[in-house]
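Problem: given the chain below (78 residues), write out its structure.
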Amino acid sequence: MVLRDEIGDFIMGCTLIFEGYVEVKVGEAMGFFEVLSWAKSMNLEKVVIEGDAKVVVDALNSRALNHTIFGDYVGSCR
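Solution.
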């Protein structure tokens, strides 16, 4: 994860390691969740998250419910 300011300059970054095996889309959703948790812990109110996991971005932009682990993470990110 990388945090940048409003003009795109690097502020800080980190790498997360999750133990165990999950589907790629679940891992990507977990990453989005962690980014939002990180932003919240830093009291950031307006954030833009860029991601290359289309399945996660589409799920975040959808109102459909998904009763899976993937859906749980997506729902927590909304």
